[in-house]
Amino acid sequence: MNDQQLLRYARHILLDEFGYEAQEKVCAASALIVGAGGLGSPAAAYLAASGVRRLVLADDDQVELSNLQRQILHTTDRIGHHKAESGRTMLQALNPEIEVVALVERLSGDALLEQVRQADVVLDCTDNFATRHAINRACVSCRKPLVSGAAIRFDGQVSVFDMRRDDAPCYHCLFPEAEEAVELNCATSGVFAPLVGIVGSLQAAEALKILASVGDTLAGRLLLLDAFSMQWRTVRVARDPACPVCGHYQ
Ligand SMILES: [Zn+2]
Asked: Where do the THIF-type NAD/FAD binding fold domain residues begin and end (predicted)?
């Protein structure tokens, strides 16, 4: 790290549990963030500010007025712009030292696999089950750690599916695709603005610890937040030996 970097990341380097080595790992790492909305905004902002060397931000949507209540990467004057590009503008202003790649596309198939393969950690900041399961499959296939977040109304959840570990559950173990899933989204159900900030920030925290190899992550645990009563709960998540997605590795 040069003098500017030592100063920029000084408060991380000061942490006994983090320090110079962890910051160096972060500065050499890459992260894929799928979704530049409510969760992706704080997640990407903290990863950029923390100096993750290469951030790939994928989203095919455009900024709308109703996004601005919570999607803090975007600004009023960028309504109509692609979220991935609007996000890149904000992230590069936060930290010009890092590389930010804006992908204006809904990642799927080989393109998704290729991006997951190139990433050290993947953050699922999307809002629909089909994409979540596609991201999970790619992470299982490439054995990459997946940090998953979700927020709707006043309810948030975060977990880590660390596919580098043989005993780790995957997203499908927890939320089997075959089940009749009632898809809620913010457009119809509403969402409390700071909730996505909390959940997205938790995703950034888990991703940074994974990249830096410090602390304990939420691997094997699901963290649930009721932001209305402000109560947290943690539930254990076990690997499903019969899971059709990750069962291959048993
Ligand atoms: Zn599984």
From this structure: 9-245
